[in-house]
Design goal:
With about 190 residues, this protein is an alpha+beta fold. It is built from eight helices and nine strands. The chain folds into two domains: about 100 residues, no CATH class; about 80 residues, no CATH class. About 40% of the residues lie in helices and about 20% in strands.
């Protein structure tokens, strides 16, 4: 992740609003490239992040260049690699312990109640209909049939949030040369 801001230019900016200008990385230019990328969905393929896969590891795996980690993060709107990237198992466990006191406390504390108003289905033609839920209060939860309700515990809630970060888009390697040239042109302005 150390290469993420390497292609970004620097600007002088009064960060503390005290009349003293400091040289800072101009991260606003990343949005020009992101807008261009979002309009071309065919440039991407899906990847599911496994434990231990960092942006630089994926950049090396897909582009043979770990310094292109910024491409992985930019394509997936990752701004803070500590919070926008899935935690590894050990880090996730430490996060749970820090936030809830212990894993067992998180596993036993109700986060919310859910009404499952559409069950997960696979239709005859292979179409997958995802499960849909709605968060409800305890009173409503108690009126629902057992098959139509679920308790979501803190641990499960945090696991779902972490796992949702695992599905990312990888820009096809055949476009990387053009993308880096484009980025050079934007960053040189």
């Amino acid at each position: 992740m150390s290469f993420y801001f390497t292609p970004f230019p620097t600007v002088n900016y009064d960060v503390k609003k005290n009349g003293r200008f400091e040289e800072v990385t101009n991260i606003t230019l990343r949005f020009k490239i992101q807008d261009m990328l979002r309009s071309r969905a065919s440039l991407f393929h899906e990847h599911s992040i496994q434990d231990g896969e960092r942006p630089d590891v994926l950049a090396f795996k897909y582009y043979d260049d770990p310094t292109l980690d910024w491409v992985i993060m930019m394509a997936n709107l990752v701004i803070d690699p500590h919070f926008d990237w899935p935690l590894e198992y050990a880090s996730f466990t430490n996060f749970i312990k820090e936030k809830y006191g212990s894993v067992s406390t998180a596993q036993g504390t109700v986060h919310h109640y859910e009404w499952i108003y559409q069950a997960h289905q696979v239709l005859y033609d292979g179409t997958v209909v995802p499960e849909k839920t709605y968060q409800v209060d305890l009173t409503t939860y108690n009126t629902l049939a057992a098959a139509d309700r679920r308790i979501k515990y803190d641990y499960d809630y945090e696991t779902d949030l972490n796992d949702a970060k695992r599905s990312i888009k990888i820009i096809d390697s055949k476009y990387i040369t053009r993308l880096t040239q484009l980025a050079d042109g934007i960053f040189d302005t």
